[in-house]
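From the pipeline queue, job 12 of 40. The input is one protein chain; the requested action is below.

Action: predict structure.
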Amino acid sequence: MHILEIIDKKKKGRSLTQEEIYYVVNGYTQGKIPDYQISALLMAIYFKGMNEEETRMLTMAMVESGDQIDLSSIKGVKVDKHSTGGVGDKVSLIVIPLVASLGIPVAKMSGRGLGHTGGTIDKLESIDGFNISLTMEKFIDNVNQYGMAIVGQTGDLTPADKKLYALRDVTATVDSVPLIASSIMSKKIASGSDAIVLDVKVGNGAFMKTLEEARVLAQAMVSIGKGLGRNTVAVLTNMNEPLGREVGNANEVREAIAALKGEGSEDLINVSVTIASYMAVLGKAFDSLEDAKKAILENIADGSALTKLETLVKIQGGNPDQILHPETLPTAAISVPVISEKDGYVHEIRAQEIGTAAMLLGAGRETKEDIIDYAAGISLEKKVGDKVSKGDILCTLLTNRENYQDAYDKALDAYEVNEEEAEIIPFILDVIS
């Protein structure tokens, strides 16, 4: 077997065998196959694709390239949740306590953000003392005792994926469905959960810009999950504007707290409750989505979901008083209103632009070494469909940086205001199961 033969085979559109895929993944991970040959293979895959079986085998080869988390000592069905990424996406902060309040164990591993804003881990670290570096023993013990825990990605999970993704990033092969699907699912499979709910974002602020593209990716990931023995559902959600009204870190925690009280933005609550409901059904706590949603809404109304978030913060070393008093979370010294320059209706809020503006204010990282300002971010005063008049505040910049003009310009440009009323896109666009 030789890498040249494998490249040529895929270049001609033929399917690769399990032996060939493992040979490539192991050889590249161990440094035996050079970048330039894997680059050629990635480009061949980009143009010729991979079938379901090839994609599943590629996923498992990446899973087996490193550590795999054993969660078998956690009682019950472990359900994981993954988002393909969006602006203002604080859904994990809401669904972890929601699902745990139903008695379903949530053992969550999350990453940091690079780009627009922080990741789930960064957002939680805006809470004083919150510790995301638990030992595996403590992580499992917390889930068994309290029903939930969240840590940063630990150990040497999917080293093959890390190498392949870095190469895809510099060879213009990132946007290949089999490569995206296997990359995402390899990390989920290696993390050890029994079932997976995928939140696939669709729109201008997402990787998948159209519903058709998102459906193809969702179907590929669901196929991988089910083929590898994990019950998997993909929920396609709207990202043609930021989710909720807050973008940043501490302000997204504040909004998550409000959502757990049943307050705040309708889109955020709708998406969070839907994702949590599917997790509850996959976790075998309920037979129907309707029953799961009813129980979730009851736990929001009676305060038990918010109490679970308070408990999560407490058991991971954070200050639970900040959940009860969110005004004590980090707050920016400078607040700048972004003013509408015309009358009309908000048709679109380009999430990518809002995310970039938030990063310029200090809420995200341009490089891995950058330090996040937890107080920085953007509060959206107007959402898609809202009527605005010239002089109205569209959004408010929150920062500790004196130079905010570039962020102001980007935030203003992100808003598309037209004379006619806007078409309202549903929050939940499709479900693939």
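Job complete. The two ends are 38 Å apart (CA to CA).
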